Every structure is written in structure tokens, then in C-alpha cells.
Amino acid sequence: MDTLTGKRVAKFCRDFGFEGTDADKFERYVAANYLFQYVRDDVESIERTVLGGGEDEGIDIAAVIVNNRIVFEPEEIDDLIAGQSANSSKVIFIQAKTSESYDSKLIAKFLHGVEAVTKYAIKANSVALPPRLVDVAILIDRIAENGDKFQDSRIPCELYYVTTSSNEGQSARSQLQVTEAIARIRELGVYSEGLRLRTHGHEELANKQKERHGPQNVQFNFEKRQTIPATERVSEAYIGLVSATEIMKLLKDNFGEVRAGIFDDNVRLDLGPHNTVNSRIMGTLQSAEREHFPFLNNGLTIIATGLRGNGDRFFISGYQIVNGGQTSHQLIRWSETDEVKNDPQLLDNLWIPVKIVSSNDRDVRTSVSIATNLQTAIGSTDIQASSQIAKNVEEYFAQSGADGLRYERQNRGAALAFARTRVVATPELNRAVAATLFGESSRAIGSPKDLEVEGSFVWGNYPVETYYYAAWMIYRIDRYFARTPESTTLKAAKYHIAMMASALVNPGLISIFETGDIDAAAKKLENPKKLNFRISDKLSEDIENAITSAVEVASAEFRDVLAEGRSLRKDDVRSRRSQEALLGRVKAVSQH
Predict the structure, then answer these.
(1) What is the pLDDT of residue 207?
(2) Which pLDDT belongs to residue 40?
(3) What are the phi and psi torsion angles at 156 (to 5°)?
(4) Which helix (H) or strand (E) holds 108?
(5) CA gap 289, 291 in Å, rounded
(6) 37: part of which helix (H) or strand (E)?
(7) Which partner for 45 in 39, 152, 160, 537 could form a disulfide, CB atoms 3.0-4.6 Å apart?
(8) What is the spatial distance between Cα 579 and Cα 493, in angstroms, rounded to a whole number?
(9) Spatial CA neighbour of 431 closest among 479, 467, 392
(10) Looking at the DSSP assignment, which residues form a beta bridge with residue 237?
């Protein structure tokens, strides 16, 4: 691994709290950067995209995207496309190698893995795959069988082979075994035309990291503009008209693909070409009314972290299109029609209203977003987090030292300066408390929103150490999954495992869990005699042993589902019957 990349990976893993071999760390670094617009900095999402282990068929990272959301279960796809006739999808496969060179044999193995997953999606059990890849294949199959609800007749697919090389790997891509492997995948007819392999070295990887903050130094011409007076917190601002030719530079990268993340702060996803408003926009673009476009369309509002000009030539960085998403997508579609391809000057002659605001002040950026109808409503968890007990919990967590945990009570806009694997937010803490202190693991899995209502039982007059205990239990289970890739098929049962582990280290909780009496449990927890919730070295060791036992119990309870060769899903584990069966099993274990 080259020196600079090595330092960036090391810092990333310190910030996030990721551990493991250099290869493990590099895979998570690549996943976090290449999938940033979908996973953001969510530790669990990053972990779930990394397949890991020795049975990954050359595929280190895989992601299935529907309507710009990453999905992990077929039911999530059903929920996202329900009631919508125009949906989008994408599949991303990545192989990440720390090597400073390209290995055509490993590339061919990676592509063979993609081919195998695709064949399984076409016909289940037609090839042998490990469970994590079966999960991916099932998601692809669910998209394919709902093809009439998606905009593209074939599924867009991106293939990346990422290294720390100093070149782009052109020679490796041209090797016969690589080109033939790509051809075989294309012949399956599942993915969009133009499927190709991207080989990236350390420069491309560094650019991906920069893109986490939006596209960087994109050049465009802005001739017809008026300056809006700057303020103390707004460095530059302009309003005016930009030609469609120049707008396309902002919307598409050098490969002709929509720039990653530029619509993340936009309240509306692409509503598709057949939406009424979008049809009207396209109608204008394809008619003699095109010259009146600046009068008929509100144009784009763009927020940037950096903007510098040299005459009419501007360079923009870290930008978001916070208003005008539908206009942008229709312009992209129009630019790809035969009419425009045959006469590119049409783009030169079309003018788009644009407002650009450049500021590094987060409050200003938020204010502009609010003004363009992007105001974020106060959520129920925000109300929970404003309580005095939540403030006390936050203070208690903060005293746990460098090896402890932190409670992110408020959304600060920027992450806490602490390893993210050790930071818990209110929704996660709610679920942890429900499972480990009340035995309500089925509710934590299937109905987490119920825990967020005002007056929820998870926020009571309980000792602050009980909250830390609950969070610590979940943290250690997550770390268990991270260091044992073969166990990740059980992740959907995480809160059941937490419930069982808690019962094993505190057997006095079993009777509370059995009754299901929330009020009685709450009263008991207010004065938890004979229950040990204060994390110590001894209790930490007991928790580790209990997690191992709980995993074994879960594996036995769900062995029939696991025998299907896939991971557990929420629907497999969410029932109260599963909770009661697992509690019965763990009670028997505790009595031996």
C-alpha cells in the first residue's frame, strides 16, 4: 500500500474504530468512500456492505441501491417501490486490494464472482454461493421480477477493482481473461448496456475520498450573472443564466455519469420521466417553447463550500443542488436524446436560471435548504433526547474514557470526535434498552418506532449505568460480528442475541422478561437490586462469554432458515414467538 493511502486508511480506522488486518481495514475504507452517498458514515451500513471472509468469490463489497437507498432485504425493496410506477435501481460490486499493482487473475476471479451471483439471481441454486452472496442475488432477483416498476429495462451495474497502484490499470483491463469475463456477464442480459470494469489506483481512490464532500474543482462558464452582495458568512453568491452545455458539466462527470451525491440534500428523488411535472418540462425542451425555458422554469439553486472565478470561468467544489432536482434529471434525459446528440448546439442555446451560494458556514447552508423547502421536522427522538435523563446519560457516557462509549444526544451536523463504532444515537439506544433491560427484543427488531413515542418506557427514572450497560452490550455484539464474518448471517437477530446475553449475565432479568409486564419491569429497574449493570472488567468478560453462548442459541433456533443458505431477515426473527422461544432456550442454558 502506498504511504499516503496507508496513512489515510489508518486515520479512517481510528476515527471509526474499525479493527482487523490491513486488508480488512482497506475494504472498509473503500466501502465508506465508494458508497458514501448511500451509507454516509453509518458504521453498521458500512459493515454490512463488506462481505469479508475467505468465501467471497473475489467480491469484497456489494451494494444494491433502490431509489437512492441502500437495501439489505427484499422486503425493503417492496416498501420503497410500493405505489410508485417509476423507480430506480443500481448494483455495485467492488474488489479492494492493498496491492500497488493489478493482477489480471484476481480481476478475472472477481468478475467470475459477479457472474456467479448474477446466475444465481436468474435461477436460484444454479450455482453454489456463500450466504452473503446469496443475499445479494436475492435482492437482484427481486428487482428483476418487479421490472415493470423500474425506469430501466435492465439493471444499471457498476464494477470496480480498487488498488493502491499509481496507474489506472488499462493493460489489466485489456487482458483476454478479463475481457471475456466481462463479455460473459453482458451475455446474461441482466445489466444495462455499456457495462464495464473500472480499475482504480490510489489517485482515483483519493478523489473518491474528496467526493465525500461533493465534487471538487468542477469548471464551468457563468457569463450571464449578477453578483449578490456577500455577507460575513456568505463568501460569494450569484444569480443568473447558465447554458445547458455548462450545466451538464455540473451534473455529469467525465465518464458521462451523474455526479455522486449532488442531490443528497434535495427533498425529492427523481420522480421519473412520466411524472406530470417532468413530462411538462420535457415537452418544453422538445418544442419551440424551448427559448422561453428561463421564464417557465425556476431553475437550480446550488449550495457550495467553495467557489472561485476567473473572468467568466468558475470552479466549484462541494456543491449540492438543493432545488431543481427534477429539472436537472429532465435536462440529463433530454441531452441523451437523438435530437440533441445530432445537434449539440441545442444545449448551447438553452439557458437555465441558476442561483449559487458559496459558504462554509453550516447554519447558512441549512438556512438556504430550509428556504427551498428542505426543513427537517423535529423528530420524536429529538424530543426524547431533550429530557433531563437523556442529558444525564450523555454526561455518564462522556465519563467512560477513551475506551468507552459516547451518547450522541443531539444531532450536531458534524460527528462526535470519537470512534464512530463507539458512538450511539437515540434510536439505537432505545432499541438496546428495550432488548437488554425489558426483554422486548421482538419490538426492538420489528417496531422500533414504537419506542420513540413520547413517554416511551425506555426512558424512565432508571440509573444512568443501565443505559450504558445496554449500549455496551450492543457494541460488543457488533464487534463480535465484525471479527467473525461467518456469524453475520445472524445480524437480523442482533437484538434477540442482546436479550439473551443480558439474561445470561443477569439471570434475575429472566423472570422480568418472561412476564412481559412493562410497568413491573420499569419499577424493578428504578431500584435494580441484585442486578449488575455497572460495566467492569469482570462484567465485560461475562458479557463476551454470554454473547458467544447467545449466538450458539440463535444459530440453533433459526437453523432451518440458515439451512437455506442465506442470512436471516427481519421477517424471519421479528415475531414475539421467536423472542419467547429464544428466552426459553437461554433459561435452560442458565440453569445448567
Answers:
(1) 83
(2) 84
(3) -60, 140
(4) helix 104-122
(5) 5
(6) helix 36-39
(7) 39
(8) 10
(9) 467
(10) 357
Residue 61's nearest CA partner among 42, 33, 102 is 33
Distance CA 35, CA 40 (A): 8
What confidence score (pLDDT) does residue 375 get?
42
Parts of the chain with a pLDDT under 50: 374-376, 413-414
| Distance in angstroms (rounded) separating the CA atoms of residues 115 and 123 | 12
Distance CA 87, CA 426 (A): 31
Q: How is 276-341 classified by DSSP, letter by letter?
A: HHHHHHHHHHTSGGGGGHHHH---EEEEESEEEEETTEEEEES-EEEE-HHHHHHHHHHHTSHHHH
DSSP H or E segment with residue 397: helix 388-398
Distances (CA, A) of 477 to 13, 145, 545: 19, 35, 11
Q: How far apart are CA 133 and CA 59, in angstroms?
A: 9
Closest CA to 491 of 431, 552, 568: 568
Q: Are 100 and 165 in contact (CB under 8 A)?
A: yes
**Please, which residues have CB within 8 angstroms of residue 86's CB and are 6 or more apart in sequence?**
149, 150, 151, 271, 272, 273, 274, 275
CB distance 114 to 159 below 8 Å: yes
CA distances (Å), origin 214, targets 262, 265, 515 = 7, 11, 52
The Cα–Cα gap between 221 and 241 comes to 10
DSSP letter, residue 567: -
| Contact in structure between 8 and 387 (CB atoms under 8 Å) | no
Q: Give me 366's grid cell.
A: 441549512
* Dihedral (Cα; 186, 189, 194, 198), 10-degree rounding: -50
The enclosing H or E element of 457 equals: none
* C-alpha cell read off for 76: 425493503
270 vs 92: CA distance, rounded Å: 20
Contact in structure between 159 and 196 (CB atoms under 8 Å): yes
105 three-state secondary structure:
helix
The alpha-carbon radius of gyration of the chain (Å, integer) is 26
State the chain's maximal CA–CA distance in angstroms: 83
